[in-house]
Amino acid sequence: MAKSTIYAGLEIGTHKICVVVGEAKRDGAIKILGVGQAPSRGVRKGEIVDFDKVQTCLNDALVRAEDRSDVMIRNVFLGVSGAHIESLNNRGCFRLPEDQNEVTEDDVEEAKEIARNVAIPQQNVFLHSITRQYIVDGMEAVRQPIGREARTLEADYHIIHGVRGRIQNAIRCVREIPLEVEDVVFNPIAAAQVVLNREAKHQGSLMLDFGAGTVDYVLYEDGMVTASGCVPFGGDHISQDIAQAFQIPHGRAERVKVDEGSTLYHHISPSEMIRMEDENGLFMGEIERGFMNEVMYLRTHEILTLVRDRVEEHLGKLAAGVYLTGGVSLMKGIDAVAKEVFGLKVTRAGSAPVSGVTATFENPQYSAPIGLIRYAQILDSEKPFLSPLARLGRRMADLLT
Amino acid sequence: MVEYDRNQQSEISGRQPLRICVAGVGGAGSNVLDRITMDRTVEATLVSFQTDVRVLHHSTSPRKIQLGTELMRGVGAGGDPDLGREAAMFSKEEIRNAVDGHDMVFISVGLGGGTGSGAAPVVAEIAKSTGALVLVFAAVPFGFEGRRRQQQATDALERLQKCADALVLFDNSRMGELVLPKDGIQKAFAQADQLIAQSVRAVTGMIGAPGIVKLGLDDLVSALRTNEGRCLFGFGEAKGQNRGVDALKKALKSPLINQGQLLQNAKNLLVHIVGGESLTLMEVEQVMKQLGRHVPDETQILFGIGVEPKLGESVTVTLVSSLSATEMASRPPVEAEPEPRREAPVRALVSRAPVTQVAPPPPAPEPEEEPQQLFAEPEPAPEPEPRRPSVAMQAAIAAVAPPPPELFAPAPEVAAPAPAPVFEPEPEPVVQVAPPRPRAQIDAAPAPQPAAPPPPTPEPEVFDEPEMFVEEEPEVAAQEPAWEEPEAPDQVVYLASEMETIDAAVEEEYQPIAPAPAPLARDKGFKLSSVLDTLNSEPLTVAKPTPAPVVDEIFIEATESRTPVLKPIAETAAVPLPRPIARQTPVPVENEVMSHSDFASESEDSDLFGSSPPPVMPSAGNVSKKPAPTPAAEQQTFRLGGNEDRGRFKDTEPALVQGEDLDTPTWMRRQRRVAR
């Protein structure tokens, strides 16, 4: 690319709405120009339930981001999540014509087409089709099959799809701002671009973006996306459990969770109390710390178990272990719970390789929106050389492996 | 007599081509037949069978037969398959005359209605008895037509399977795929008819028409048979420059072949390419090359080419294959996940082959969806689904391929038409389960007293003796009169399963406070089982006296135990009475929780409950009194059906995993589980 490009990533989260403006330099580095953030209202479990509230908050976040970065934002990359998003792996097999021995570009396209042609529920749309690998005459993990001698060529795809209506609603909500949506990206795919490095992807790793509304996960094996998805439980549920256990408002429960909460409860004496104060610093009551921690532990453990159940079959191959990111990954003791659940090395990670005001942006809360910038950059990096639609698959392959 | 003989002779010697008969039974069948008649591309005897004279008059088919002239007097069957069957029985001879002397009989029928569901099996049976190859093209009713019609369709299918050589199903619900959303409804139906008409035409054309590379009846049969269950069918026709490949694409797009996906597993595939006189070898080559991409290497391809001057500039490609149900089910997860009925529009059930492997997969996909439904609205319907197929399978006379799974999905009401409505009004929890039971029993076994005795009768059967159905089932399948009998067990399945369902649901939500009723009711069922076994095996009259008293007692007990339980709850709402429950609950739980509620019962008491139970968010004053939530929450659960427990997620869709709503706090669910 001749000059640097500015991208904006937008994540409408359950807890916060976040707009990140980043500059992709020509050497591939990313500089964060500004982040606009506003508390989110009207989002539940990663999905928009109240358009008006979300738009108000989004406007807020947008204005802040424009202010800080001094950039007019017109186009955004939109990160989406939600329990409706599912993924699967599919292979398309193409036999080369009898008179032809060498794999050509057309053959690859053909194999891809076959691989991408999977039946998904009627109301669903494809969100991503990511090439995992090519298989040439049974030989796996071929990255570049063109020019090889072969009889059969298989394209192995990871396909992510979601309910059309829900994705459309998110897009519409953003368009009414008005902002143009350049691309819709499944959050963990974006987050993984900045949380996982090449090595982690190759060794095999599971990244969990533990947000307020959902836990999004993506699992890499041998440098290939193997599984991804979303569990519709998150930090909100933890707060809500606390709120209901102590009969306190959700907001206060949330605050107590962030300030005092932990998932470790075994060594806390039953008499240890947390003092609660109202806005004026006046004493309001106390709650039992051990009990609160246990409540948090139970819920966290349950959520992580749900994730484990989904990826169980791949867990044996993850040498790099589990990477935790997202707001809840800041919670005390969550690494211990994750370790207990997955039995793997657990790393808490924010986004690593960006420049800018790094101190702020290494916060795991921003992994997904910053990942969107990275995603946009990689997506664009090959544009000039390739015809846009036909090579999308390969671009994604390079990008994600 | 002499005339007849001569006719026969001349037909055999003179006309080499196959003698084909296309029969349209019922309204939908006739529509397809009209379509075929008007297309005039099929060289076949076209016969329309109808009960309704007026409809019959509208039909354009050259031969029309009114079924059950005396019985029906020219009026339709009114959606009653029994009537349709009767009518067909009355006109047996006419039917035989019409279909006799053909090598192949196609029967097109719309299932679910009276004439179609009732008469088509009779027609198929007669056709089979004349020694013809019988292929049935059946349209299955829309999902929205209701369970009853679906059930009728299912029943009819079961019958058809026994006498048809192949069964091709078209699911009306997929009609939407054939046309654009804005297209008129007439077009949609016309397209559906046309699809079936095309299929008939393609098969007849394939077998009947002379070909350069000829495909015969034997090829067709071998493509369809091979102890596999379901038929894939694709037909495409195209004109223009790329006509060969276009036609193939269309054929692959056919909803009957599921976009070509299913071909990946096909063991043998019959391809027939027919073109006008301008058909070139090049085009054929292209088509086959293209097709090779969709088909694995090992597939045996039965290949045929024909030239049909009538087609002019266009080329048609026909694909016929069959796939066993297991293979269909073993397709990648995606296929299983979409609504089951959508996954494969067409199945042909080849009854000649000794297929027994077909049934096992069907139940599998179903249950996945079930739990959600069960809890969303505790209807009696969903539960029996898995059970039913298995029963059917065991009963299946070896040669019969069991019915396709999704037929059951929409039509789980196994019970015969009459009693069905009884169940609809009772989606309510346990308390209401009792009343409907007697009625159900009355339908089945007229003898016992209406009030108390009957209900338990069926129930224990379900719990203890599922095999009994299996024994009875064959009768059901074999002869009609038997139907009356087995209805009872079938219904029972509902009741019982429903009971279970509700129990589960109730236990889930209500248990903490009123654990008594649910288990109680179930216990009764078990106790009774022995009595009922005898009842079942003995003649009804003998058994009658025995159960009556027993059941009476039990019932009183049950109701008694139920009412008092409920009352105290209402009272305790305001009094500290729930406390004991709260205390019991945590005992087995980890220490933290326990100490917690202990503290509760000591420190603060009824003052919390002085007013009616607080809403979820109490004022700040309550904050210090942590123990309060447990009992309070439980009471709310009881009242509001658990929605209150979901806190701020109460407006969102529930996240059910294994019957638990995970939006409810984990600790709350743990406690309940322990309490139970």
How would you describe this protein?
The complex is a heterodimer of chains A (401) and B (676). Chain A is an alpha+beta fold. Chain A has helices at residues 51-69, 105-116, 164-175, 187-195, 198-203, 235-246, 250-260, 289-311, 334-342, 358-361, 367-381, 392-400; strands at residues 5-12, 16-24, 30-39, 43-44, 47-48, 75-80, 86-95, 124-136, 139-142, 152-163, 180-186, 205-210, 215-221, 224-231, 273-277, 283-288, 321-325, 346-348. In chain A, the strands form 5 sheets. A 5-stranded mixed β-sheet of chain A has the order 3-2-1-6-11, with helices on both faces. Chain A has a 5-stranded mixed β-sheet with strand order 14-13-12-17-18, with helices on both faces. Chain A has a 4-stranded antiparallel β-sheet with strand order 7-10-8-9. Chain B folds into 3 domains: 19-341, Tubulin/FtsZ, GTPase domain (Rossmann fold), CATH 3.40.50.1440; 417-571, no CATH class; 573-675, no CATH class. In chain B, 50% of the residues lie in helices and 12% in strands. In chain B, strand 1, helix 2 (26-39) and strand 2 (45-50) form a beta-alpha-beta unit. In chain B, helix 20 runs antiparallel to helix 23, helix 21 (458-464) packs across helix 24 and helix 24 packs antiparallel against helix 26. The longest helix of chain B is centred in the last third of the chain and has 27 residues, at 484-510. Mean pLDDT of chain B is 59; it is low at 1-15 and 328-641. Chains A and B meet through strand 7, helix 6, strand 16 and helix 8 of A and helix 14, helix 28, helix 29 and helix 30 of B.
Name its key features.
heterodimer, A: 401 residues, alpha+beta, Dna Ligase, domain 1, 5-stranded mixed beta sheet, 12 helices, 18 strands, globular, B: 676 residues, 6-stranded parallel beta sheet, 50% helix
Write a brief caption for the model.
Chain A is of the alpha+beta class and about 400 residues long. Chain A contains 12 helices and 18 strands. Mean pLDDT of chain B is about 60; it is low at about 1-15 and about 330-640.
